[in-house]
Amino acid sequence: MPLILEGVNTFYGDSHILKDLSLRVNEGETVALLGRNGVGKTTTLKSIVGWVPPRSGTITFEGRDITGQEMMKNARAGISLVPEERRIFTNLTVAENLKLAQVTASKPGWSLKDIYARFPRLQERATHRGDEISGGEKQMLAIARALVQDTRLLMLDEPTEGLAPLIVREVEGIIREIKTQGMTILLVEQNLYSALSLADRCYVIDQGSIKFEGKPEELRGDTEVLSRYLHV
Amino acid sequence: MPGQLLDGFIRGLLYVAIALGLTIVFGMLRLVNFAHGAFYIIGAYVGLVVTEHVGLLAGIIAAPIAVALFAIAFDFALLRRFYDKEPTAQILVTFGVAIVVEETLRLIFTGTTRTYVVPAWVQGSLNLGFTQYPTYRIAFGLGVIVLVIAVWLFIQRTNYGLIVRAGVRDRTMVQLLGGNVRQASTVIFALGAALAGLVGAAASPIYSIDPGKGFEFLVPSFVVVVIGGLGSFWGAVLGGLLVGELQSLTTLFLPAASDLVIYVAMALVLLVKPSGLFGESEVIRG
Description:
The complex is a heterodimer of chains A (232) and B (286). With 232 residues, chain A is α/β, with parallel strands linked by helices. Chain A has a domain at 1-78 and 154-162 and 186-232: P-loop containing nucleotide triphosphate hydrolases (Rossmann fold, 3-Layer(aba) Sandwich). Chain A has 10 helices and 10 strands. In chain A, the strands form 2 sheets. A 6-stranded mixed sheet of chain A has the order 6-7-8-3-9-10, sandwiched between helices. Chain A has a 4-stranded antiparallel sheet with strand order 2-1-4-5, covered by helices on one side. In chain A, helix 3 (94-104) packs parallel to helix 6. The longest helix of chain A has 16 residues, at 165-180. The radius of gyration of chain A is 17 Å and the shape is globular. Chain A starts with a strand and ends with a helix. The longest helix of chain B has 28 residues, at 2-29. Chain B is an all-alpha fold and 286 residues long. Chain B has a two-stranded antiparallel ribbon with strand order 1-2. Chain B is globular. Chain B has helices at residues 2-29, 36-53, 56-77, 87-109, 135-157, 159-169, 171-176, 181-207, 213-228, 233-253, 260-272, and strands at 125-127, 132-134. The A-B interface holds A 49, 51, 70-72, 75-76, 80-81, 83, 87, 89-92, 96, 99-101, 103-106, 145, 149 and B 159, 162-163, 165-166, 168-170, 172-181, 283-285.
């Protein structure tokens, strides 16, 4: 079992954000974490990677307790977070962004050749700085950065946010492709339809705890959960 | 006049070497390090002692190593606890260490101004065509230029430099990718210190040594960093040369104003471009 969260409580200062949150992601599964703004989706991802360590509860990855382990170690253990703002190094070129991820990886993942074959735009833009590329290219680069490493749990925070519809479809295509290759994915999405089309299973989170767990088709049929927690 | 210009250039290179350490450490650690002058002066005294007993080359090699070790110990024992504190706390602790270093050196070596004799092969002067100029100063200048290029190549061309450049922009993301930011910070801190120590040993035959020299050179170097833009590599280089020349030329025409002029220059630059000549956007980038 790749990822298990049990009774996780996370705080920002005095504010209690995650309240006894439990969830699990199975091997090769794509799980979507859904909910409105500010309910704790991003905090869940930050708790897992050790960015905001939980105050109590346990997080297990591939059978090892990683609760509160520092970000660097979690990354080296195979957990990749593609954060919401993408956080491309704007002072480095596209190629340097990829090179950095290769240099800091514990083990190599995709080769640069494979990356450029799959993301030809990145090859075209290889010598451009991170602040000279479009939002869609940034998202591709952020995902590619995770792929050049030995990533076994890919966590994507709002990967389609702020992208044009055509680019959204392209990013979805990439996620679907990575998924078919057997990657375990935890996806945070505001875009309900995008998430439901990609996920094998989903959780709905509200006020820091899980309110619903089930398959996408079950969520589609549950009008109460949809209207109460997702305002659909 | 050509001699004065060259003097300014050499002094400028000295500021460049000190300011580079300051600006790189600021970029990577967001640390305003008032102990940087202490690194210079420790290097100068280590250079003095080793030169007197072994020779100048040994002194110039020993100084950066000794200072780097001192910086690593300082970082582990004290500074690390202040990384996340407000700048005032960092300034106080680094300032405090600088004073302790200066007074300790005064206890050991007294306040007397010292210097050391350079080996015969760098004594005398060279005819540059337009002027006669001391050989050691020329060697010093060339050495600093080589050093600046080496630091630039380290930052631009090595994997380590890549982590540093990324860390300057976004430490969290480097860690999320598995990069060891803490280790890189220590290496950068030690490197900046070694640079100051090296130049401290190498510059002493030109500018002589006393325990107050650290502060004496630190202050203009801060001006250099502010003029060039905090964290900017080429800003430090350009700013250093500018400040060196300004001081040197003012000494020629209006000696009393030679200190004042650099602050006026700093104020003018800040008025026109508050982030310095190469501003924040050019952080540690060529």
